[in-house]
Amino acid sequence: MSTLSDHMRNGDAGPTDDHADAAELADIGADVGTDGPVDDDVTCVVQDLPARLRVRAAELAATINPVNSPFTQAGLPDGGLPDPADLAVLTSKYWGRRRRTLTVSFVESTAAELRQRILGHMNAWGIGVRFALTSGVGQVRISRAGQGYWSYLGTDILLIPRDRPTMNLQGFTMATPEREYKRVVRHETGHTLGFPHEHLRRSLVGRLDVAKTIAYFRTTYGWSEQQTRSNVLTPLEESSIMGTPNADQDSIMCYQLPAQITKDGQPIRGGLDINLTDRGFARTIYPRFWPFVDQTDWDQSADVSIESALTQEHVTVG
Ligand SMILES: [Zn+2]
C-alpha cells in the first residue's frame, strides 16, 4: 500500500489520528501468544466471479465508483477501445468515497457474542465505510462452514446470489485467538473493501523463486501449479492499482512467505494486523470526514421576507 509519508503529505491524517493509531498499534503486541487453535494450513484466496460475469462486474464497479475505471486513472488509450474482457482485468473494485454502511449477516446460526466480535474486527479499519449487523440478508454474508479464508473483492460482492456467502472464515469460534481475528478477519475485510493482495505487487512477486514457490504451496496447502501461478506468481497489473507507489511487505494484505522460496533468501514478512500504511492508504480511498462546507447561506432570491416570516410565527399543530 502507499507510503505513510505520501499520505501525510496529502494531509489526510492529522497528528491526533496518528497518536490514536500509535496507541492502537501499541496494543497489538499484548495478545500475541494467546492460547487457542490456529489452522496453519489455511490460507487466503481472493474469490473470482465466474468468467461470464467479469465484464458485468467491471461495469458495476465503474458505475458505483468511476475511479475504478482504468480510463479514469489513465485516460483513453491510443488505438481505440480495448476489448471489454481486457478492461475488466484493469478495473479496480473500490466502493466510492461517499461514507456508507455495508450490512453484515451470517449464513449459519451464530451467537451474538461471536457476531459482535467479528464485526468489531471488520470495523477496525476505522474508515468511511462501516459495517453493521442486520437481521436480514446482509450485503456482506459470512460463512464459517466453507473451506479456507476468502472474500470476493469490493463491489463484486453485489453480484453474488443472496443465498451464498461473500466471505468465509473457516472454523472461527470464540476460542480462536485474538491474533487470528486481527490477521484474518481484518485481511478478509480488506478484500471486501476492494484491496487486493499486496504480495501480488510486481516487486514482491519478482523476489520469488518460481519452482520453489510452486513446490512450497503444493506441500503446504496442496495447491496445483496453476493455483500457485494465479494466486501467488502472477503480478497485478500496476495500472489497476490505485495510488500505491510502493509495495509494503508488512501490509495486512500481504502473505507471509518464507525465506526458503525467495531468491534473496529473505522472507516476505507479511502483515499480522492493519499497519499505519494500510490505514493511511485506506483513509485516502475511504475518508472518514468530508471537508467542512459552509451550509449557512443560500441564493438571495430565496430570502424570506418579514411578511412571510410573520406567517410562520404562529403555526397550527395538527
Ligand atoms: Zn487474501
UniProtKB/TrEMBL annotation:
UniProt superkingdom: Bacteria
InterPro entries: MetalloPept_cat_dom_sf
Protein name: Peptidase M12
